[in-house]
Design a protein that fits this description.
The protein is built from one helix and 28 strands. It is mainly β and 306 residues long. The longest helix is centred in the N-terminal third of the chain and has 4 residues, at 15-18. The structure holds magnesium ion. Magnesium ion is lined by residues 81-82, 126-127, 184-185, 233-234, 273.
Length: 306
């Protein structure tokens, strides 16, 4: 059974309360302890399960919402990191160790969607998001090749940490944004007019206008963390346009659409990733060090935030 305790949070702007980002009796529930470095939570509505990656242990786990049971989903898992669903409900995984993005088909077979850009191996895909046209956008920092801890130590053939787009028709891998220290989480705004990308090494979240042809305009800084505590990982929107960000040792940040930091959920571990889920899309799942947490919030996730 999950164990809960009152969640600690910090209100920096009154909208954090009035817009129901935090409600009075928030409870931080511990759903599982025992990963080495938990990452990539993904709620699968049809299964009422959450799957996540345990990167150094090269496995994926699943938590069953109906029973609270945790079991092994698969191992080895290519040192998978971020997971998402495409519009057909198929699992898209960023496999850091195998340096590729894959799709798990409904029959259980695995299709490689991207492992190279212009003939050069990817670094170590970290996280992805799917646009309404079916294109898959993913970040490719070097975290999985700098040591054998989160992947397999190796050289960067590309020599840069970029964001790419996989075309839904041709499968072509196109570079869409560069100039990052380490791109990480990425998500489209509710109307898909903008793409937001966190840069873990630059302590920033950048946003890019999406042109009608699917290319991006130059990015601008949306939010910046001070010091080293607030390094950003994954980011997700709720349906009011608040941007929620995994912020490592600074918990979970919540930003207004204008970039104001409204408040923080304080988490007693280093937060790697977040994802909304639950039947009403109001439950925030948090991976942090060895632990999977959840928090039933006062907000509802944007439809694509699952
Ligand atoms: Mg990540």
């Amino acid at each position: 059974m999950a164990t809960g305790r009152p969640a600690l949070y910090e209100v920096l702007d009154d909208r954090f309360r009035t817009e129901k980002c935090a409600v009075g009796d928030l409870q931080l529930e511990t759903l599982h302890v025992g990963s080495r470095w938990a990452e990539g939570p993904l709620y699968v509505p049809a299964w009422r399960q959450l799957i996540w990656s345990d990167i150094p242990n090269d496995r994926m786990l699943r938590w069953d919402e109906a029973t609270g049971a945790v079991s092994l989903f698969r191992s080895p898992a290519g040192h998978s990191n971020g997971n998402t669903l495409d519009h057909q409900g198929r699992l898209i995984s960023c496999e850091q160790g195998n340096r590729r993005v894959t799709r798990t088909e409904h029959d259980g077979s695995i299709t490689v969607l991207a492992d190279r850009y212009r003939g050069k191996r990817l670094n170590s895909p970290n996280d992805s998001t799917v646009k309404s046209d079916g294109s898959i956008w993913f970040s490719d920092p070097d975290f999985g090749i700098t040591s054998d801890y989160e992947g397999v130590r190796g050289e960067s053939e590309i020599g840069a940490n970029n964001v790419y787009r996989i075309d839904p028709g041709s499968g072509e891998v196109r570079l869409v944004a560069d100039g990052f220290g380490a791109p990480n989480g990425l998500v489209f705004s509710l109307d898909e007019s903008e793409l937001y990308v966190s840069d873990t090494r630059a302590n920033q979240i950048r946003r890019f206008e999406v042109r009608p042809d699917g290319t991006l305009c130059d990015g601008e800084v949306f939010a910046e963390a001070k010091g080293t505590d607030g390094r950003f990982d994954n980011i997700r929107f709720d349906d009011q346009g608040h941007l929620w960000a995994a912020a490592m040792d600074d918990g979970v940040h919540c930003y207004a659409p204008d970039g104001t930091l409204l408040g923080r959920i304080l988490v007693p571990n280093t937060v790697s990733n977040i994802r909304f889920g639950g039947p009403r899309r109001n439950r925030l799942f948090i991976t942090a060090n060895d632990t999977l947490y959840s928090l039933v919030t006062g907000v509802t996730a944007a439809p694509r935030a699952l």
